[in-house]
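4.2 Preliminary Data

To establish feasibility before requesting continued support, the project team ran the inverse folding procedure on a target of 256 residues. The structure was first converted into the token representation described in Section 3, and no sequence information of any kind was made available to the design step. The complete token record follows.
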């Protein structure tokens, strides 16, 4: 999950100021965590404390109300009822990474990814996006090769992963749908040479930089691990509550 948070923080300053190159530092003084991080931590807490995804997503979002949530989600947080609103946005995919790390079978990962998505994103594309990211993480942490990951995800979900970052970049624009951002984010991992390179690939497409960085970073963490220097920098941007939950989460999955 820390890979997702790293990608979120790194992409935060480029969400509305897109770039089309990889010649940048991963962090800057203006970097900050966004809703991607808030909701990722909420999912992790739900897992380690055996609490509902709905409960913690609402609680964390209300506690951190200025993290950059989408309009429909903001209304949903503060509404009297909390019914799903048929979203196909990539919010379901940006927050799902703890599930890919925490569960031990494909079937359980897919089931929990669906549960975490459908509290808001109950459109088939919203569910599919979350499942694809969680399954890619599961495969990567279980030592699948990139080609095995590409084949499994493209076959199961129908995503076209036979493109390169260099082919996508010139024509890509800001896009929040799962169907037009999740496959591209997965490609950014598949096309990478390191953890940092995966995140830079995602940001360099010039799209929804923080969310795409979070998705690519989450899979890259499972495949490459995260350099200690990057871990320390990422954690320095976070409140104590988040750091404590992150520590508890990694202790939880290590003990399984």
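Position-by-position output of the design step:
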């Amino acid at each position: 999950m820390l890979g997702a948070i790293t990608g979120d923080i790194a992409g935060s300053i480029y969400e509305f100021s897109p770039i089309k190159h990889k010649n940048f530092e991963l962090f800057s003084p203006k970097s900050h965590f966004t809703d991607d991080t808030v909701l990722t931590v909420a999912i992790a807490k739900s897992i380690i404390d055996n609490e509902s995804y709905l409960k913690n997503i609402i609680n964390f979002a209300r506690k951190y109300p200025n993290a950059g949530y989408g309009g429909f989600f903001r209304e949903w947080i503060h509404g009297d009822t909390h019914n799903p609103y048929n979203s196909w946005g990539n919010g379901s995919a940006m927050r799902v990474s703890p599930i890919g790390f925490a569960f031990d079978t494909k079937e359980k990962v897919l089931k929990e990814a669906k549960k975490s998505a459908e509290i808001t994103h109950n459109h088939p594309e919203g569910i599919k996006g979350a499942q694809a990211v969680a399954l890619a993480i599961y495969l990567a942490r279980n030592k699948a090769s990139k080609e095995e990951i590409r084949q499994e995800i493209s076959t199961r979900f129908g995503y076209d992963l036979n493109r390169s970052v260099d082919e996508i970049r010139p024509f890509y624009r800001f896009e929040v749908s799962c169907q037009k951002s999740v496959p591209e984010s997965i490609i950014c991992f598949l096309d990478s040479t390191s953890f940092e390179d995966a995140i830079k690939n995602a940001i360099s497409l010039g799209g929804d930089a923080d969310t795409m960085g979070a998705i690519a970073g989450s899979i890259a963490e499972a495949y490459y691990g995260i350099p200690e220097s990057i871990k320390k920098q990422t954690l320095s941007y976070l409140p104590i509550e988040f750091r404590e939950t992150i520590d508890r989460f990694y202790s939880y999955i290590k003990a399984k």
